[in-house]
Structures are given as structure tokens and as C-alpha cells.
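G.,

No rush on this.
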Amino acid sequence: LSAGEVLKNLNKFYKRKEIQRLGAENGLDARLFHQAFISFRKYIMESSSVSADLHIILNDICCGHVDDLFPFFLRHAKQIFPMLDCMDDLRKISDLRLPPNWYPDARAIQRKIIFHAGPTNSGKTYHAIQRFLSAKSGVYCGPLKLLAHEIFQKSNDANVPCDLVTGEERVYANEDARQAPHIACTIEMCSTNTPYEVAVIDEIQMIRDPARGWAWTRALLGLCAEEIHVCGEAAAIDLVTELMYTTGEEVEVRNYKRLTPLTVLDYALESLDNLQPGDCIVCFSKNDIYSVSRQIEARGLECAVIYGSLPPGTKLEQAKKFNDPNDPCKILVATDAIGMGLNLCIKRIIFNSIVKPTINEKGEKEIDSITTSQALQIAGRAGRYGSSFKQGEVTTMHHDDLMQLKEILSEPVRPVKAAGLHPTPEQIEMFAYHLPDATLSNLIDIFVSLSQVDGLYFVCNIDDFKFLADMIQHIPLNLRSRYVFCTAPLNRKEPFVCTTLLKFARQFSRNEPLTFDWLCRHTKWPLGAPKNIKELVHLEAVHDVFDLYLWLSYRFMDMFPDAVLVRDIQKKLDDIIQVGVCNITKLIRASQSAAAAGTATVVSEDFPLSRTKRDTRAVSDRHGAKSAEALSIAAEVPREGRAKNLKGYRSAARQEDLKSHGRGSLANRLLREGLLTQEMLRQLESEWQDQHRNGRYGLGSKRDDHSSSKEIGKKKK
């Protein structure tokens, strides 16, 4: 056979529309068809010999009968894609077109759906909670532990016994641990089997969230309650109405208006010298949080600090400090974490920036202007009803951002178009039955690629799940346990937390309980107060590790037996972190002194941390699933070996640092960090111009003239 002729005919076979149609009928979509053909072509062209029947067909197709090759192509495709043999079964399992049918208990009753629609600070949730408190039994489902804890306290203060259920903790209202008729929980923890009189689903617009939207869909379709009170933005009304139409349930809409006026100011703050009591500066990165808080305290003002990775207890203490009229702290610096979950007495919201990094539905990181929904959620925190400020104000730090903020706030909120879905462990187990040799990561990939959803739904982002699945793939676990470990709520950008999960999984696989002593050795507990930002960030990571232990302890009680002891030391750690946050400007100064001495380089997501941690994070951010393998190896390699392994990543990490530090002019960065004032800048500019005129920058030097002309020549080229 002529290799050239065979290759030409194989390519002709690939391009035939009839062959592509036959492939589709046998489960090969365009992507799988292409991959199967590449593999098939490689097999034929690189084999020293092929079977006799295939040799005969290859000889025949040289005479023009290329379609006769299809049975051999399909046989090869089934070898590399085993699911082709059971494609019909897999398609049925991954058919997500009728989610209401997954909840027969909810479909067996006629539910009344009441949508409380309105902006932040309109009283919509208050009215829903009043109905919750007056019911014989009820469940509150919120997006945050802080919100669930607030309703838990309010209920018990109103003499309505209520339990608290979150991923990490169970608190019973009754001393004998009997379940109370009312429950306040995080939305992922709500039961779809327990009957209630009233259910409250808070922040319903999060049903569109690319990562967590599935939990709101599950609660809305699956809760067994006579009345479902849904609270959130009016932008979700149409979607909720359509979803309820598919279940045969009507939606009653109650609209609310903001209880206090909110004014967008005509001027920007421009300078931190213009701050007033009750001001809150909203930043979208820890870097800005640290920078702004230091500049504020340099002016002799105290400020409270709140950001997402702080423990709930620390956030509450900082909020309490800011709200206390007798406390000298009158300024708050926060991320958009204040958008929900905290009651704050804010007079004026000041956006330090209106650009925010986000993760899109494909799991890709994007940097874009904040949405109208986000802007309204944050701005609405100003002038809270019942606080000392009867109206709210909103503006920006920089004048250039003010017009854009006004445009964003004036635009209508985009309607919520679709509700999130996520494969259940039962569905993945059925997939595994048909594909016993596939990894969990591959099973999820195949499930998503075969899944069918109608226009009202989308499949949530599974990148975090796949990252953890790849990281623990080499550890022998049964499928259900592996699935649970992969759904653990952790930030994959935290190397210490990821490696701890890896160690948990390994110990679990050996059937060795994770004891309190083991955890203390691993985290080096007890820990002291942080001396710099790097140590504060590490304490936050240790707090996340304790959260992870508690989360796993409710799923594998016998293997994580010391939840009570861990909760005790977590409270102590919360107190230590509170001390660190109260002294945050001292920690920043210590970090910057260390950086100047060359002992540290980057902090948190975009601020100086130790080099090893920065390098590990660089691996995590840039290499996706590969970083899971890097972490799993790093957890087993001794420190000296790990340093050697990381050496290859360091040059890339340094390049990344140089790029990030190069954004914006040096003058702007120094101004932002408070190291340079406008007056100093003008003086420097004047001095530079004088020196330039006097020839002190090389204009009088022949050598410098020559180098300047060379530079001009380069620019012309």
C-alpha cells in the first residue's frame, strides 16, 4: 500500500458528510468524531502492519470505496470512547430537561409561591421572616452562614425555637438535641424530604450563579412547604414564574420600594482627606483594602476592615466596632462582602474602583465593570432603615469613575434567564456503573457533554470539582466518598487548604481517623498573633482548614471524630485573627519592611507573600488541573525536594510579578499607596524640568546624545 494514497483517502473519508452523519447516529458528536479520526489515522499510518480484513479494505478504498472503512473506524472509536456502547443509557441518565420530576414529594402537594421583590433595604425579607416566625414549622434558606445565624438568633429571641444548620455546624434550640420545628440553614443544607408550613428562600437572583445556582433551583423546585416565600431582585420574577408554570404552581408577586432615599452624589471623594463618619470605601481586592486602610490610619483615623476570607466572627466584630456610636472607629474599608449578611450603619458608600475580577459561566477569569445588580446591592447598604442615617449616599473615589457609576446604576437590571443545575451523586454513580474504568473527572466531563437541558436551565461550572477530583485521583477511595471530598467548600487558590484536603483523603483511605492531635500537629496549633500580613493570611487559611474538618465531620463522623474540640480551637483562632485585623496597618508596615529587606515578596491574591506560597499559587492559577497534580506531589515531597521542584516555576512567577507591578504609572501607584502627595509630585516634576533644561539628563553629553539618537532611530524603525 502507498502511504500517500492511504492518507489521502483517509482524509477524504473524514470529510464525507455521509460519514459524519453516520458517526453522529452512533454517538460521535463533532468533537468526538474529530478525536476518534485523529486516533484512527495515527493507528493506521504508524502501524507496521494491520489486520488482513482492514488491509483489504484499505486496498479497496484506493479504488474509491471510502465508505467501506466506516465499520473499522467505529470499532476503533469504541475502543477509545467506551461510552459509545452504552450511549443511549448514558443519555437517559444525563437528561436534565425535567428537574421538577426529581422531587416527587414536592409535586405531591399544592404549594403557594409568594415572591417578595424589591431592592436592598426595602423590607422584603422582613415580611417573609414575619410569616416564617408565625408558622407552626418553617425553614429559612440563605446564601451565607451569617444570614442563617442571624435568623437563628432572631427566632430564638422571639421565643420561636429554631435550629441552625450549616455545612460545618449543627446548633439545637432544645437542650436534649431534639429537632425544633423551625430551621435556619445555608441553602445547600436544606432538606427536600421534611414537610414545613412555610419556607423562605433568600436572594433568589443567585439561582443564576455559575457555581452555586443549583442550590436555589433545588430549593425552589424541591422544598415540601405549603407556602414558599421567595425574596430577591425583581429581575428574577419572570424566570421563577416560568419555572413554577412547569410545576403547575402560580406565583403571587409582592413589590416593595426602598424604605430610605439613596442619592448618587455629583462629586467624587478625590482624596481620603474628605472622609466623613459613616463612610464605607468598597474595594475589589485585598491589595486595595490594605493600601486604603493604611492611608486612612496615616491620617489619624481609625477604620474597620471586612473582606470575604475573614472568619464570620471577625466580620461581626468589625461590623460591631463600626456600628458602635461610642467607638472612635467611624470609617469602614470593605470588599463587596458587605453586599449581604451584615447589618451596617453606613451613611455613604464610596467605590474605590468600579472594575472587578469575576468568573464567567465557562470558569474563565474576567476583569470587567461591576454589573447593575452588583452596584445596586452594594450601594443599597447606605442609609439602612432604622440606623442613625436617614438617607444613603453613593459616590466614587475617582472623578473619572463617577459618570460610569451613574450609567451603571441607571441601567435596568438584566433579567435572570436560566437556573443552575448540577449532577447528583446518584447520577454519577450510574455513569460509573457503565464506565467502570473512567476517573471521576472524566465521568463529570462525559456527563456535562451528554447532558440535555432546556432553555430555562444551565449546567453549573464544575471546574473546582474537577480540580479536586484530579488532585485526589491517585488516592484509593470509593466513588461516593470521592464525590463528597470533591464537593468540599474550599478556595483552590489556597495551597495550604488544598494540601490539607489531600492529606485528609489519604488518611481517610487508610481508614485512620483524623484526630484532634493529628490536626494540631499539621496546623502547628497553638498559633500566636500575626506579626505581618503573610502570617495573617496563613491564619485565615488555618481557619479554613478547621472549617474543612468540621464540614467533613458531619459527613464522616467516625473518621473525623473530634468536631467539638476543633470548634473550640477555631473560636480561639477567630479571636487571634480579630487581634490581627484590629492591628492591620502595623502588619502592613511590617510586611513592607520585610519586602524592602528582601525577605518577602507578595501578599494574598495580589499582595506580598512568601515566595514559596506565591510560586505554588502561580502554579494553581496558570496550570488548572495540572496544579492539582503539583499540589498532590508537593504534599508528599520533603521541603528540600519541594524547593527543587518549584525552581522551574519561579522564573515564570517573577515574570508574572513584573507584569502585574508594571500596570499603571509609578506615580499613580505611589499616590494610591500614600507614599507620594500631589504637592510632592508637582515639586518633582518642576525639579525634573529644571534639570532637563540645564542639561543634567544627558542633553549636553555627546555619549547620551548618541544613545538618544539611537533610541529615536529604533522608534522610527
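When you get to it, here's the other one too:
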Amino acid sequence: MSQWSQVQQLEIKFLEQVDQFYDDNFPMEIRHLLAQWIESQDWEAAANNEAMAMILFFFLIIQVDEQLDRFFFEKNLLLIHNLKFFFKLLQGKYHGNPMHIAVIISNCLREERRILAAASMPVQGPLEKSLQNSVVSERQRNVEHKVSAIKNSAQMTDQDVKYLEDLQEEFDFRYKTIQSLEQNDKNSTHIKQEMLVLQAMLNTLDYKRKEVLSKIGRVIHEIDMLMSNMLTEELLDWKRRQQIACIGGPLHGGLDQLQNCFTLLAESLFQVRRQLEKLDELLTRLTYDGDPIPVQRPQLLEKVNFLLYNLFRNSFVVERQPCMPTHPQRPLVLKTLIQFTVKLRLLIKLPELNYQIRVKVTIDNNRRFVLCGTHVKAMNMDESANGSLSVEFRHLQPKEMKISSGSKGNEGPHMVTEELHSISFETQVCLYGLTINLETSSLPVVMISNVSQLPNAWASIIWYNLSTNDPQNLSFFNNPPAATLSQLLEVLSWQFSSYVGRGLNSEQLNMLAEKLMGQQVGYNDYQLSWAKFCKEHLPGKSFTFWVWLEAILDLIKKHILPLWIDGYIMGFVSKEKERILLKDKTPGTFLLRFSESNLGGITFTWVDQLENGDVTFHSVEPYNKGRLSALPFADILRDYKVIMADNVPENPLKYLYPDIPKDKAFGKHYSCQPNEASKPSDGGVKGYVPSVFIPVSKILNDSTEPHSPSDLLPMSPSVYAVLREHLSPTAIETAVSCKLFHS
């Protein structure tokens, strides 16, 4: 089943997450129509290779064009219309930058895998539960309801102001009519009655002015209360969700809803401001003793301007945090002289502001780094899927300034990766006579000068965003707080779900907890220090816990990803637990686990039964990325042979724990089907027998050490068949021991 087919079968709460990251940068319709073709391409490699990206982009356009021809033939007008639009959009956006579409598609596929992994996990962690709190959802609904009510109240007040204006015009007309009469006429009974009517109208005007001012005051008060309480909390919650999403957590949504609320409140405030201006206009035409307008209007206008200032100030947000396109799963880590992207949005979407707001970007003021590239760009509504007022900087590069050698001190790798920096943005809004200066900043970023610093830099980003809600604590690592182990384990699971498509289950997390704590106890409230996580070596090892875990992530990503995604790698299990699991299983049952003593290594252990009935266990020396680069791991499991004393080579691996036949588990991942005896004409150079690599281990009866895979012996099936026919088992054993078959 294709990945897209699996996505379509998800529950609605997960489908809503998928909907968040498909927009006109990469329309969902294209993803749906070209599902199998898209999934068969290596978009991640293309994201880092311009030539490959250009080829894939060219074929993407061809695929869309072919779909367009098909719908012309089927006379499907709606799809023809949509595909024409998408065809032009893709060509216009990415023809000059094909790597950008490769990055986008790669990110979408990765997020789909993360969501599929999250959907398959039975238990939510404490962080994810807090993000999906029902109280938060109820508050969101309340905010939207109150904003709608405020908008309606402001519109109703418009009608009151209009009625007041009409009433005053009638009063003005009658009053001027009387004023135009001769003095003798003014003493008539009719005029006296008219004067009484005018007095009554003036009383009504006074009452209506007070009523309108009171209604305006109530609208302003409602906006003030909403902004001070629920809307502020909503914005802070969104920023917290963004922090969590940056370190691999669930995708954060809700920004469009916030934009709608901010925009409606801004429209209501400007509407109230126009109402106050209208009252000022009415005041210039008519005033009287006790007139409420000159007393109340200035205070109300001052409050409206103050609220507009705060609303605009809070509406200027970093929609997408700084990230290098080459490392989309590692946002907030920036390498010198490598481009990164960052996107800003103004949550107040007013047409009058389109292309009128110019945003300037700078880096923190320590003068150690400068930004190269376009520093100033205008916000517009044309580049976003939903027409939001935004700007994206795509070609910024941090550059380290040269400083005197004496000022560098004893700066080490840990100091570099724990040094936080801030990227700041500023702009100015001029609208309806108001001038408002706006500022915002990214979450703290870590600068690196060498890709080898990336793992530790990413650890700093994880720890910061896990431990604090403060978006700008650049001195955080002067005294980093401890983290709750239960929350840290949840974040570690996110590293696997976001980076390699499958999170960790409770048993795997328990093993990591034991490794971090050194003992098997409850860990819900256990506090883990930053040093224990990233700086102190594991007991008896020359590396830290984080370096060990990062090496495993890299191994999975580059060499065993399909097997990991299928869930066939238990991975995180101790040697002791491994033996408990295997001891009662059928001989030949094996499991796969990551090495605890070697960085980036994976091994397998199988159970066997001796002639006397005793159970024994065998583990091979861990395979690292060097060996796995030579032979796929699934092929190693298929072809692995072991030579016992006085026996011929045989494959001891029969069942993947608990009882899955090996070929059923891994068959679809074999690079080719094995042949019992290859003929010279089967392939290879004419006149030669084709050779294959076969991993072989030798087990001695008195050996208690881990056994080596003998570095992948290049023995062809036909050679092996001939050996079995003409040589005794002892001779074969002697040949292997002397490494006669080594290349």
C-alpha cells in the first residue's frame, strides 16, 4: 500500500494535521494524482543536488501535463481548470529554483511518515497531551465566538452613529429654519411650539450621544479584555506549539484562526476609530453645555490607538523559524556561509497593507556574525496559499566576522554549540494616520562552522525548547535547568518519528531511560541534567548518550530505513533483556538491536539449542555504516552463514522475534533473489562465474566472545556448491579460518 493510501485511512484528527502542510507551494491535488510516482523519487537527495532537482522538476511538470491530457480526454472540466492553475504555478515558482520544490516535497513526505508513525503509537506523551488539552480547544472556540460578537457590536454601533447623524441633520435643519425667520415671526405660537420640539430633539441628541459613547466604550472594553486574556494566551500557546514542532513534535496549526481573530479585531478597532471621528465631526457642527463628546471622545480614542498598537505589535510573528533547506529536520541550527530560510507573517490581513510594509532582518548585536543576502523585503499577500500578509527570506547566509586571535580564548566545541543567537526583524506600519514600529525575533539559533558540530548543536536546540517557554533567553546555557525524563523521552521518540519515520514504543523508551538513569526505577518525575544528556560520557564508554543516539539515527536514515519503518528492528533492548526474550523461543529465532558499545552499529542475536538441551545465544559483531555500504542489511540477514566446528556453513536465522518467518519479514527488501547455483552465463563478465558477497562467521565451541561477520566474504553460490561437493567440512573450515576466500 502506498504511503498516500495509508494517509487517507487515518482518523480525522490526523488528517487535519496533514491538511496543515499542503498549500499552493505543493498542492494536495498534485500529491494525490501523482502519489506513486512522487513516492518512488528520491526528493531528499534532490534537495541537496541542483542537477538532480532540475531533472525531477522537469519530470514533475511532464507528469502534471500528462494528467492534464487525460482529463481533457475525460472532459473533466473542474480538474482541467485546477490542473492548469497548478501547472502554471509550479512553472512560475520553481523553474528558477528546482531545489526549493524538492525540499518542500521531501518535507511533506517526511511529515506524512511522522503522522503515520504517531497514529500507530498507542499512548500519547505528556507534552503532546498538553498540546491537545480540551480546555485549550474550548478557549479557542470562546475566542472565535467573542471576536464575532465584538464585530457584530461594532457594526450595530455604526447604525447608531448613522441614526445620530440623521437626527442631528434634522435638528440642524429645523434650528436654521427658525434662525432665518424675522424677529416678529419668532414670537408666534407656532414658533414657540417648534422651539419645544427642538428642545426635545436636543435632549434626544444628548441621550443618543451618551448612548453611542457608552456602546463604543463597551466594545473597546470587550476588545481590551479579550486581548489581555484569552487572545494573548492563544498566541502564547501557538508559539509554544511552534517550539515543540521545531524539535519534532506534532505540527502546529491554528495560525490561520489567529489571523482571522486579529484581523477582525483590527477591523473593529478601525471601525470604532471612524465612529469617533464621525462624533468629532458632529461635535464641530453642534455642541452644548454638558455635551459628552468633548469629555469622553479623547479618552476613548487614546484607548483605541493603544489597543491598535498592541494588536499590531503582537500580530508580527515568525511563521516559519530559521532553517537550512539542506537540513529540514534540524531547524534553528545555522551553518556559516550556508543559506537558510525564514518566514514572517502579520496576522492583521488588511488590503491596504499589501506591499506597504518592508521588513528588515538583522542578527544579534554582538558583532560576531553578520547576515549576507537580501536584508529588506516587502510583505505581500501574493506568495501565500491563504493570501496572508507575509514575507519569506530565502537567501540569507550567516558569516562569521574575523576577530583577533587573542579574543577567541579557549573556545571549545561545547561552548560553540551552547552559544545562542537571535535573528531579529523590524518594520513600520503607517495606516490611517497611525505609525507603529514593530519588532520580533526568531527562537534562539545555534551557529556552527562545521557540519560535525550539528549533532551537539541540535541537542542544544532540543534542550532549550523542551525546557523553557521563554523565546529569548540567550543566556540559557549559563545555567541550564534539568528536564523531566518522561518529557525528554517523548521528545527522543519524536526524533525518530520525524527523522526516520517511526517513533519509539514504551519498551524501547524504557531501555533509554535505564541507560540515562543507570538503574531501573520509575522515571515519571525523574529530573535529568543537561550534562548527563549531552556532556558526560556513558559509564565505561568514550562517548555521550546523545552522540550514541544520534549515530543510531544516522545509521537508520542511511542504511536500514525500510526495515525500521516496517517495525522489524527492536533496536533498543539490553543484552540481558534480549536473552530473556529469546530463551524460550524456537532455535533460530533472532532479533535485531543497536550496539551499546559501538557508535552507529547494529547486531543480531539468535537462540540455539545444544545437544544436551541447553540454550545458547550467539551475537555477531555489530555492523556499522562501512559494512552496510557494501551490502544491504536485508541481504546480510538472508545470506548470513555460520560455520560451527565440524559442520558446513548454514544460515542460523530462521524466525524474527517473536515468530515471523525471516523471508516473510524481509523478503520485500532483498536486493535480488538468491540462486542456488549460478551459471557463467547468468551475468557478470563472460567466462567468469558471477560472485556475490556472503557474510560468514565461525563459532568455536569454547568461544564466549561476540562473533565477527568476517568482513563479507566474496563467495559465489556456484563456488560454494562446488566446495561442498569436493571438499570435506574440515577442509572448508580450514579454508575459511585461513581467509583463503577473502578478497
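The mean pLDDT is 82. Residues 189-246 form the longest helix (58 residues).

Enjoy the weekend,
O.
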